[in-house]
């Protein structure tokens, strides 16, 4: 409620327009009863049929004018609701990128649309009730103030009763939904294991376990039904009791000087305007409101953030230092790495090789801090950039794609120079320059990898981890990109390499094989003066 009020307060213009157009509706409500009263008193009952018909024509004209206003109202509601929907979509996408889960697509499509529709419905219903009530109450007062004495008290009592049901009913509906989900979860598990349940003769135990959530759901449903009953009572008190009272007190009202036309007009206000508006309000707030409440809660709930992996700084002169690192993907899984020690001096080019599944990507993820070791310690310099095999290119300009890892965007000359060094200059030209839009689907795997490599080159990381990041480039292009990183000042380069040449070019080679690891220095180095290597 608070965030909805804050949101509406942030859109004063649309809210003002909505109010102004809604006033037309209030005017029509008022005119409907008033014109009928006049048509009777000054027209048909006074024997002047022309005047009666004239007043009825005025009422009909008012309906047409109000219909125009209603059309405008819909536009204002759209202007209010669409930005809310966009904000929700942004939030859902950000959350899905931070912590992807299976429900992200449902949230993005189904739930956001429900939120938008229900929010629009709610604004329409609330607004309609407020303005209809204003129009009807003003009309009653204008016809005869005594009418308000009869109508206002039950109407007020009904509204108070209704307001009192809002919170308890919403809570009970939420409890019911939670109970419903618990039943679905319990039954889902049981259905998945039906064959085993029958084989083990465990039907009674499973049924007993399912009884608790089923009973809880039944109790929750009964509680919702009780409060829904109170809500129906509030419609009767607020919308129907005034009609009854008006009929019962009709003789008294006539004695007080209220005209028959005014009485008929009052009945029109009550039956044609107030009662339907009250019913829509209760229906709207009751069903739509709770739906919105539940959906928004889900959409806005923050996911449980995975605990950050802390990677401490390595001792000098190393960029990476691993001691006795053990890692397995599950408590009962074979360890991928077992007791691995590795010290990589800053400025070194390390190649990690080994057969498929030997743990090369796992090791780079541990160094990058994406995985936490099960045992031992991983230490690495803080500024790191990891380029995975699946290069990520998004629909945006080439410039945005190349520079989005830079805290301060580099100039165009620097960006183009980086593209040139990596060997992507021809590609950026072909796409249409830095301002052209990159279409990820139209680029080949190798082209996407080139863009990701330039992005990593421009990023401030002193430790660059290339996990088969050039696997789709031809050997010459791969060599060029690799050389660019080697020549980049103050850079430690770790390359996961399948090609033999890539390993031969490195200062150090870590060969992984099962849980064994061997660190060697290839014979053909000599392009760089290494600090004392821990071999
Ligand atoms: N998320 C995961 N959950 C469970 N097991 C995984 C997961 N990721 C990798 N593994 C397993 O861990 C082992 C090492 O995988 P990893 O991807 O690190 O090997 P790799 O040497 O990089 O392989 P490749 O050369 O094929 O890319 C493999 O047996 C793999 O099946």
TrEMBL record:
<dbReference type="GO" id="GO:0034040">
    <property type="term" value="F:ATPase-coupled lipid transmembrane transporter activity"/>
</dbReference>
<feature type="transmembrane region" description="Helical">
    <location>
        <begin position="15"/>
        <end position="37"/>
    </location>
</feature>
<keyword id="KW-0472">Membrane</keyword>
<dbReference type="GO" id="GO:0016887">
    <property type="term" value="F:ATP hydrolysis activity"/>
</dbReference>
<dbReference type="GO" id="GO:0005886">
    <property type="term" value="C:plasma membrane"/>
</dbReference>
<dbReference type="GO" id="GO:0140359">
    <property type="term" value="F:ABC-type transporter activity"/>
</dbReference>
<feature type="transmembrane region" description="Helical">
    <location>
        <begin position="43"/>
        <end position="68"/>
    </location>
</feature>
<keyword id="KW-1133">Transmembrane helix</keyword>
<dbReference type="InterPro" id="IPR011527">
    <property type="entry name" value="ABC1_TM_dom"/>
</dbReference>
<dbReference type="InterPro" id="IPR039421">
    <property type="entry name" value="Type_1_exporter"/>
</dbReference>
<dbReference type="InterPro" id="IPR017871">
    <property type="entry name" value="ABC_transporter-like_CS"/>
</dbReference>
<dbReference type="InterPro" id="IPR003593">
    <property type="entry name" value="AAA+_ATPase"/>
</dbReference>
<keyword id="KW-0067">ATP-binding</keyword>
<keyword id="KW-0812">Transmembrane</keyword>
<dbReference type="InterPro" id="IPR036640">
    <property type="entry name" value="ABC1_TM_sf"/>
</dbReference>
<feature type="transmembrane region" description="Helical">
    <location>
        <begin position="119"/>
        <end position="141"/>
    </location>
</feature>
<dbReference type="InterPro" id="IPR027417">
    <property type="entry name" value="P-loop_NTPase"/>
</dbReference>
<dbReference type="InterPro" id="IPR003439">
    <property type="entry name" value="ABC_transporter-like_ATP-bd"/>
</dbReference>
<dbReference type="GO" id="GO:0005524">
    <property type="term" value="F:ATP binding"/>
</dbReference>
<dbReference type="Pfam" id="PF00005">
    <property type="entry name" value="ABC_tran"/>
</dbReference>
<feature type="transmembrane region" description="Helical">
    <location>
        <begin position="147"/>
        <end position="166"/>
    </location>
</feature>
<feature type="domain" description="ABC transporter">
    <location>
        <begin position="320"/>
        <end position="532"/>
    </location>
</feature>
<feature type="domain" description="ABC transmembrane type-1">
    <location>
        <begin position="17"/>
        <end position="279"/>
    </location>
</feature>
<protein>
    <submittedName>
        <fullName>ABC transporter ATP-binding protein</fullName>
    </submittedName>
</protein>
<keyword id="KW-0547">Nucleotide-binding</keyword>
